[in-house]
């Protein structure tokens, strides 16, 4: 059955190549990966990628690239607009073994930004689903810590955590001047490390910005993977597991800092956060507060104006 789907995928990618070539686009030779065929479509300085996956559930086709570019719109119209894939789900992929990545802490004025990557296979996927692994936002902090322990028992050391504490975060922001670029760097670092540990080339990431952010960082590291970025990526088990492990580290940071100061350090960026930050500033000094916050948040404008 797998060979049948593989042949069908090859026929599909060749069909796509012919359609796009007639539009005057430059098409690379179909490249066979572990679970898919892919072509790169070029037009001047713009580029997109078409992937046709073959798995135990059949053949699925994906268009990857910046939706705002002219070439993306052209290819999307020529393929999906003409109903070539009407019988397929174009927003999902099927990987038996893959790495999922997600982040936590990006919306909190206090605390770290944490990115986690988790590798799963058929067996660990079943076990993770049995313990109820879902998007971390659906759980309380206490449940997150329980799930963190259970997940680690199932996946062993097949995970990577990149924790960027506020002091390092602020340094990176001075360099990148953009939160999404920092996340692209951190996701790529987590992917690179876990690829080295597992030799897995399939990656699903929760989408947080331009797809090029992670891809460009991976290219710098010469890491070649089948990267699929999608909104609401936590519907994939490995991404959901990664979101839980990442949030667990954020929970740990807030717990330890709250214990250190003797009162709760709040999450988010509300007025309560400003009150607590001003209290810490009065209790210690600016240097200490800068080691606890993401300085570029608007909260800093009122906190440091005095």
End-to-end separation in angstroms reads 69 Å
Query: So what's the overall shape?
Result: globular
CATH architecture of the largest domain: 2-Layer Sandwich
Sheet bearing the most strands, described? Answer: 5 strands, antiparallel
Rg computed from alpha carbons, rounded to a whole number of angstroms: 22 Å
Low-confidence stretches: 82-91
Provide the residue-averaged pLDDT: 88
Order of helices and strands: HEEEEEHEEHHEHHEHEHHHH
CATH 4th-level superfamily of the largest domain: Ribonuclease H-like superfamily/Ribonuclease H
Alpha-beta content class: alpha+beta
% residues in beta strands: 15-25%
User: Could you please say which CATH topology of the largest domain applies here?
Assistant: Nucleotidyltransferase, domain 5
CATH C-level of the largest domain: Alpha Beta
Number of domains: 3
Percentage of residues assigned to helices: 40-55%
What is the total tally of β strands?
Answer: 10
Task: Note the total helix count.
Answer: 11
């Amino acid at each position: 059955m797998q060979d049948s789907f593989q042949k069908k995928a090859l026929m599909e990618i060749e069909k796509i190549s012919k359609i796009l070539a007639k539009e005057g686009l430059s098409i690379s030779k179909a490249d066979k990966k572990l679970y898919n065929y892919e072509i790169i479509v070029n037009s001047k300085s713009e580029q997109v990628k078409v992937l046709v996956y073959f798995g135990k559930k059949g053949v699925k086709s994906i268009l990857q690239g910046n939706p705002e570019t002219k070439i993306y719109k052209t290819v999307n119209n020529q393929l999906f607009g003409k109903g070539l894939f009407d019988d397929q789900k174009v927003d999902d992929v099927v990987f038996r073994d893959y790495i999922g990545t997600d982040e936590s802490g990006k919306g909190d004025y206090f605390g770290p930004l944490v990115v986690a990557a988790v590798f799963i296979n058929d067996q660990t996927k079943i076990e993770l689903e049995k313990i109820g692994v879902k998007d971390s936002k659906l759980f309380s902090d206490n449940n997150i810590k329980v799930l963190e322990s259970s997940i680690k028992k199932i996946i062993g050391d097949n995970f990577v955590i990149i924790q960027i504490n506020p002091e390092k975060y602020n340094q990176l922001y001075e360099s990148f001047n953009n939160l999404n670029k920092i996340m692209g760097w951190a996701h790529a670092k987590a992917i690179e490390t876990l690829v080295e540990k597992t030799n897995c080339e399939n990656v699903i990431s929760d989408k947080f910005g331009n797809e090029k952010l992670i891809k460009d960082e991976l290219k710098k590291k010469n890491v070649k993977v089948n990267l699929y970025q999608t909104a609401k990526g936590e519907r994939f088990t490995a991404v959901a597991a990664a979101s839980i492990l990442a949030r667990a580290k954020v929970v740990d940071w807030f717990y330890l800092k709250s214990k250190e100061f003797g009162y709760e350090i709040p999450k988010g960026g509300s007025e309560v956060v400003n009150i607590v930050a001003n209290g810490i500033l009065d209790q210690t000094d600016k240097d200490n507060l800068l080691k606890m916050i993401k300085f570029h948040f608007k909260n800093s404008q009122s906190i440091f104006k005095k």
